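Module 6 notes. Inverse folding takes a fixed backbone as the condition and produces residue identities as the prediction. Think of it as a translation problem where the source language is geometry and the target language is the twenty amino acids. Below is one complete input and output pair. Work through it position by position during the lab.
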């Protein structure tokens, strides 16, 4: 009987399908770092109580939570709902 190969659902995709936008194999790690930097910077630069700060913190905390709790890249993309992870990194 032929051997079957099983691949993890979190396998790295081959292409984004977008010219000039390469696949980021470490997308979860990159997004985690970007979201943590965003939270740090907005807390440092924007005064408390300013709507912009509140909105950025809420959105960023939600996305960070999704990235930390979800292994599968396509699931992250579906939950965040803003395109591919590579587009979020851009």
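Target side of the pair, the amino acids:
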């Amino acid at each position: 009987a032929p051997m079957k190969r099983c691949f993890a659902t979190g396998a790295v995709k081959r292409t984004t399908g977008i010219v000039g936008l390469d696949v980021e194999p470490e997308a979860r790690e990159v997004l985690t770092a970007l979201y943590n930097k965003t939270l740090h910077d907005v807390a440092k630069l924007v005064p408390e109580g300013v709507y912009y700060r509140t909105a950025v913190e809420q959105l960023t905390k939600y996305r960070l939570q999704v990235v930390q709790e979800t292994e599968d890249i396509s699931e992250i993309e579906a939950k965040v709902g803003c395109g591919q992870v590579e587009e979020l990194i851009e």
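Reference fact for the lab report: DSSP finds four helices and no strands in the chain.
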